[in-house]
Write the structure tokens for this entry.
Amino acid sequence: MGTEERLLHDIKAGKREASRNLYDRYSGVAMSVCLRYMGNEEDARDVLQDAFVKIFTRIGEVRFNGEGTLKGWILKVTVNEALNALRHRVRFSDTDELPDVPEEEAPDVRNVPLEVLMQMIGDLPTGYRTVFNMFVLEQVSHKEIASQLGIKVSSSASQLLRARKMLAHKINEYVKRNGK
């Protein structure tokens, strides 16, 4: 039995230490997902807690289909909890307008530390950050983003374009400031 399969089996068998092991193993990566979507640590912690409540409540429904099944399911639950929290806090708006942001030279992210890049993403306006995370990092289509957020497909594309331009500007400024 593989690691995830054993962990899932032990949790379903009621072994409390297995639940703690699951949390210890996946809470870090789930927290990084929460931070990407929520933009601040306090809200991210709230979403992480809600996600793990749902994870522990519904883990009996998970069917093991190979290593990565459990992690993938946990991250999907976490993303859905983050989106639910955002939908309750933010009204996503429809816009078909192209952004009024100056064209930026394609940024060179090789010299930008990952934590700085993640902070830049976290600092994006909520709509931009959400669409960027879903499209770029979760690889969700604009059609599905629009459906999940209750916006038009063109609004999803527009917000992604705005997010990319804003990030390009931030990255280029960082590189200039730090002489890299």
